[in-house]
Amino acid sequence: MSNAHSLYIDGQWIAGSDTLTNTNPSDTSDVIGEFAQASTDQVQDAITAARRGTREWAKSGLEARYGVLMAIGNELIARKDELGRLLSREEGKTLAEGAGEVYRSGQFFHYYAAEVLRQIDDRADSVRPGVEVETRREPVGVVGIISPWNFPLATAVWKIAPALAFGNAVIFKPANLVPASAWALAEIISRQELPAGTFNLLMGSGSQVGDALISSPEIDAVSFTGSLEVGRRVAAATAGNLVKCQLEMGSKNALIVADDANLDLAVEAAFAGAYSGTGQKCTASSRLIVTEAVHDAFVEKLVEKLKTIKVGHALEEGVHLGPVVDSRQLESNLSWIERGKKDGATLVFGGERLERDTDGFFMAPTLFTDTRNDMAINREEVFGPIACVIKVRDYEEAIATLNDTNFGLTAGIITDSLKLASDFKARAETGCVMVNLATAGTDYHVPFGGRKDSSFGPREQGRYAREFYTQVKTCYVKA
User: What is the number of domains present in the chain?
Assistant: First the structure.
């Protein structure tokens, strides 16, 4: 990559009104590059180009769309190690996680390439003799996509791929913490046979670029993943213009460890859910709800697991946890640790910033016990490698505790009981439930999303994506 990384608007690489320096959270002396920042005028330029581009792209043949999406997916998979290294370098997840995210991003494009060829409309007989009825799916139009920093490629791609598959134009605004991965994706897309304006990359701040995008009456839909606070602002802004919106926001996921749980499996699921990706996942299980019969043994085993974890530079072989994404996130995490201790939780492992050979934002994986579900650290989203154990009497108290939250994205249970598993699937008030699996980890061909304050609007991923990226037309014909 060169040191100058431009915006991509209307089929052209264009300088922004300013630039942003992107640095490595594992080593702040490592500058990844300078990235253009868009002005509000350039947001309008992209919207104008996208309105023109969507008209052309919507008329494209199915095989043309299929070929474009397959080519993007093929290149992502072929370059997974190279782009995975870039992703890990700017976001802080380990090399294995970075390469895995790039590979999965390629799979998303392949899946939606296939969906292009599955677009078959429905017909029905009318209640009126001699009249036929046909329902058609058509592109929604210009889609604004605002993605978060914790999955620089995957979250963006599971929005961009279906948007393009169903004939829409895209204006992509990535998080400003991770512009390099977004730019690399845009560079791949820029070389495809797309009409000018069909895909646009606008890097910049949320307060300038993001607000201008969500406030425009000239876009047709906005898909946003981020915090609850910002999600509410997106909903309010788009509602004012009657613009369709889809929101994935905060979470406070829980993993139940039942009386009959396999504790080795429970520890692995708890670790993968709470600490992988340095805990910076919307699906992270930050609440570990454990029945009193197995509480002490579970905590002992989890602490022993945490003692074996290597925290370090994300690009270093053998590292289990990289840094958190930046200094603000680290400060937030450490303040939550102090808040937990102040409120009466017992810190049994971690809780401190770590020093390594490079200047980075490293912290130890942290575990609290003796926590209550009404503590702030169990009510609000903490985006870091911090988990809290909540001891409960039995399964009934566990399921009540799990549901006692304003969020509802994912939930899990570790149990050998088919009865408990079936009851849990029915009673967990979340969009996704996992039995004997970590709460983090979902498939690309099935719907993803939550309930309560975690999500708003149609589901993402799988065939359910068409509910957001298309609009329905009903046609009546009298022969």
Answer: 2
